[in-house]
Amino acid sequence: AQSVTQLGSHVSVSEGALVLLRCNYSSSVPPYLFWYVQYPNQGLQLLLKYTSAATLVKGINGFEAEFKKSETSFHLTKPSAHMSDAAEYFCAVSDWTGNQFYFGTGTSLTVIP
Amino acid sequence: DGGITQSPKYLFRKEGQNVTLSCEQNLNHDAMYWYRQDPGQGLRLIYYSQIVNDFQKGDIAEGYSVSREKKESFPLTVTSAQKNPTAFYLCASSLQMTGMAKNIQYFGAGTRLSVL
Known about the structure:
Mean pLDDT of chain B: 90
Structural class of chain B: mainly beta
Number of helices of chain B: 0
Largest sheet of chain B: 7 strands, mixed
Number of strands of chain B: 11
Structural class of chain A: mainly beta
Helix content of chain B: under 10%
Distance between the termini of chain B: 35 Å
Order of helices and strands of chain A: EEEEEEEEEEEE
Helix content of chain A: under 10%
Radius of gyration of chain B: 14 Å
Oligomer: heterodimer
Largest sheet of chain A: 6 strands, mixed
Shape of chain B: globular
């Protein structure tokens, strides 16, 4: 079965600092990987997805993630945090059938002015 | 605009009562999903459906029921057997094209259920 681990349930960064949110997956075959963002009392919005086309994936709002098969990681980064980036971030994985998604437990990002 | 509509946004349940959460999508997606979200636990799959008139249990189906009579609708009933229903419920949908890169899940805005 697929699984996703997000290290750090809470991350705080200063405005303008680098954002790094960690995600490791377990999969015996190359998966599809996703990052979603959730603002309070809202649904999840897709930030970016990895589907084997390129290991460095660029998403919306200046976020990007790098797929590293040797480390089974898909960490999310943004060079400079903005106050509007404060939200909950979820990493997710699906197998090649795409029939089910498996979500991490989420990382709450706080941006300090 | 295409999307997923969940209603109501807030719902209160009395003890022993069944309540139904609505989920409608106009994206022409084949598959629909219900998740439960609790603080610190991420999303847990309750039920999913890949085609009309068919659905499968997820990881935490006990105390819940669903139906899929129409492609665009996937209502979730929280029954009185669910002893701890207070949570944020999210509905999602996706295309079902095995092996393709279009299997992205799109989410509704959620329903927050509380017990009176």
